[in-house]
Specification:
The structure is a single chain. By secondary structure, this protein is an all-alpha fold. 51% of the residues lie in helices and 0% in strands. The protein contains 4 helices and no strands. The longest helix has 14 residues, at 9-22. The chain starts with 8 loop residues before the first helix and ends in a 10-residue tail after the last helix.
Length: 71
């Protein structure tokens, strides 16, 4: 579990992105690629979270990715 705090949503997101990008986890698959994609997704960045958000992130990010977003 990774939690990031900041004075603004943007600052917290940047800190979380940095922590996730620096994470090295071996031996198991993680959802870090999905979380990084979520941090770049406009709706998430603007705080517009909804029930289709995860599917939208996967759909938008999938064409550019060589590896799956989640295990």
């Amino acid at each position: 579990k990774v939690i990031a705090h900041g004075d603004t949503r943007r600052q917290a997101s940047e800190r979380l992105r940095s922590a996730l990008s620096d994470s090295v986890i071996e031996g198991i698959k993680t959802n870090i690629p999905f979380l990084l994609a979520a941090l770049e997704y406009p709706d998430f960045c603007q705080g517009q979270v909804h029930t289709q958000l995860a599917q939208n992130i996967v759909t938008q990010a999938a064409p550019d990715r060589k590896r799956p977003l989640a295990a």
